[in-house]
Amino acid sequence: MYMPGRKLEELSFYRKLSIYGQKLGVDVFIFTPDDVDDNRSRIYALSYNQAKRSWTRKWVGFPPIVYDRCRYHGADNFRKITRFRQKYTKLRYLSRPLANKWTIHRLLSENESIAPHLPSTVHYRNRKQLEQFLKKHPIVYMKPKSGTGGRGIVRLQRLRGGRGYLMQGRDAERRILPAVKVTAAHIPVRLAGWGLQSKYIVQQGIPLELKDGRVHDFRMLVQKDGQGKWQVTGCAGRIGPPFSVTSNLHGGGTAISMETLLKNRFGTEEKVTSIKEAAYTLGLHVAQHLEAKFGTFCEAGIDLAVDPSGHVWLLEVNPKPSRDVFRLTGDLQTYRNAIRRPIEFALHLLQKKAAPNTDTHLLDRVPPSQQSESHRDRSV
């Protein structure tokens, strides 16, 4: 989607994606729904010229595979991408939207290997229900069902002696909201005053604070590889800025290697190894379970927390994850893998189509008249 000024939010990522595509023999074009000529079924797409280190525009037909990186940022963009998907139903998508946080939680709860890692979660209905939940859990998080990037997340902490709650969070623009003491009756009023009227889920708070008071969590990237198998590409820690209830990098968080963060907290190599193994196993189970529910997709960003005992908790699943956390920790090999794997998986799907007696519908979904010879088999 275009941002104000027709800027693309992830243009640097698309440049790297294009370069890796060229190395693997795959043409990569960048486009938004605004670039589509519906009357002639063609796209005025961006193409990166590595030799000239510049972007150029060219008319292309629809590719056999579309890698959806649309982040909606508003109702207009959501309607725009919805119209596009409804009009071009025969396109094959490398990635796909999943569902809101509440639906994802309910689906993951069905899996007995995943359920023990899910914080207690309810769909927010009213103040009375919230008060009952707060009696069970001294800290809770309220999250918009469809929010991303830490927008609109509220943290409630029960104060000693039943003297109300400490309420803090981020507004819809990710700005840090100052901590205030409130009664249960004032919580809905505060939410409205902060412009946070979205439908919420209420989730058991996992202790995330480090010794300096800042919160932290872990971002895991799980991706399909060039053989179509799920792999944990990597996992890294994120530490939020002071006074923030979230650790998202776009909200001012900093990145740190998983090993360093776990070693600082738990000390021994044995404990760190045990936690990593549990986290990696959980990440693969989550991706496999969601794929069984929603169909094939190429990657997921999985947010994890580790409590003081070392138990791993699943906080959130993002079907359109960033991979900057690995670049920021200096883990450049993992960062390169994270960029390359969607291209490798796309190539795997194309090769499956080309092989005899396998999936023959991949390119046939796009009429031959819409494909040039150079793009007929290897464009994304």
Descriptive report:
This is Endospore coat-associated protein. Residues 358-380 are annotated as: Disordered. Pfam families: ATPgrasp_YheCD. It comes from Paenibacillus elgii. InterPro entries: YheC/D. The chain is α+β, with helices and mostly antiparallel strands. It has 3 domains: 2-91 and 365-375, no CATH class; 120-205; 208-342, ATP-grasp fold, B domain (D-amino Acid Aminotransferase, Chain A, domain 1). The chain has 9 helices and 18 strands. It has helices spanning 11-23, 75-87, 101-109, 127-136, 187-193, 258-266, 269-294, 324-328, 332-354; strands at residues 2-3, 7-8, 36-37, 42-49, 54-60, 65-66, 92-93, 121-123, 139-144, 154-158, 165-170, 176-182, 200-204, 216-224, 230-239, 254-257, 299-306, 312-318. The protein has a 6-stranded antiparallel beta sheet with strand order 8-13-9-10-11-12, sandwiched between helices. Strands 16-15-14-17-18 form a 5-stranded antiparallel beta sheet. A 3-stranded antiparallel beta sheet has the order 3-4-5. Helix 1 (11-23) crosses helix 9 and helix 6 crosses helix 7 (269-294). The chain is globular.
Number of helices: 9
Arithmetic mean pLDDT = 87
CATH architecture of the largest domain: 2-Layer Sandwich
Spans of at least 5 consecutive residues whose pLDDT stays below 50 are: 357-377
Order of strands, widest sheet:
8-13-9-10-11-12
Indicate the percent of residues in helices.
25-40%
What is the CATH class name of the largest domain? Answer: Alpha Beta
* Fold-level CATH name of the largest domain: D-amino Acid Aminotransferase, Chain A, domain 1
What is the CATH superfamily classification of the largest domain?
Answer: ATP-grasp fold, B domain
How many structural domains are formed by the residues?
A: 3
Give the helix/strand class: alpha+beta
Encode the helix/strand succession as letters. Answer: EEHEEEEHEHEHEEEEHEEEEHHEEHH
Shape, principal axes of CA atoms: globular
Extended strand count: 18
The largest sheet is: 6 strands, antiparallel
Protein name: Endospore coat-associated protein
InterPro entries: YheC/D
